[in-house]
C-alpha cells in the first residue's frame, strides 16, 4: 500500500536515506541544509555535468549545484555512483516530461520535476504511519 503525503506535512518530512534504484546512498556528509545531510545527484545540462545538492526536507526547493542552471532549464539526473538515470515513467503534469525519483527505504520514493523552477513534486511512501514516525521531524505529531 502506498500513499501520497498530506499537504500539511510539506517541509516537515526529512529524507534521511535516499538511494538510487540500485541502492547507492545519495546522502552526503559534506553538504548540509539546515544542519541535515543533503541529497546529492549527478546532473547533466547542455553538455555540462556536475553535482546537484537538494534540500533533504520534502517540499523545500533549495538547491546548490556546480553546474549553472536557470529557470526553465531541464536537467538530466543520475546516480553519482553508478550513473543510472533517475528518470521515472511518471510525467510532470505541468511540463509533460518525465519526473525523476529518489528511492526511500521500503519502496517509497520522492518524485520531482527536472525543470528548474518547476516545483512539482510528490512523495510516495509505503506504510505511511511507520515511515512518518521515522521521517517526521517536528516536535508535535500531527493528527492523522
Ligand atoms: Zn547507483
Ligand atoms: Zn515540471
Tell me about this structure.
By secondary structure, the protein is mainly β. The chain has one domain (2-135). The chain has one helix at residues 128-135; strands at residues 2-4, 27-33, 36-45, 48-54, 63-65, 76-78, 87-91, 98-103, 109-112, 121-126. The strands form two sheets. A five-stranded antiparallel beta sheet has the order 1-10-9-8-7, with helices on one face. Strands 2, 3, 4, 5 and 6 form a five-stranded antiparallel beta sheet that branches. A hairpin with a 2-residue loop joins strand 2 (27-33) and strand 3 (36-45). The longest helix has 8 residues, at 128-135. It is globular, with a radius of gyration of 15 Å. The two termini are 17 Å apart. It binds zinc ion (2 copies). One zinc ion (ZN) binds next to loops.
Give the oligomeric state of the chains in this entry, treating copies of one chain as homo and distinct chains as hetero.
single chain
Q: Would you list the SSEs in sequence order as H and E? A: EEEEEEEEEEH
Major sheet description: 5 strands, antiparallel
> End-to-end distance, in Å?
17 Å
Helix content: under 10%
Total beta strands:
10
Low-confidence region ranges: 139-144
Q: What small molecules are bound in this structure?
A: zinc ion
- Give the number of domains: 1
Gyration radius, in Å: 15 Å
The whole-number mean of residue pLDDT values reads 87
From the spread of the alpha carbons, the general shape counts as: globular
How many distinct helices? 1
Sheet/helix structural class: mainly beta
Strand order, largest beta sheet:
1-10-9-8-7
Percent strand equals 35-45%
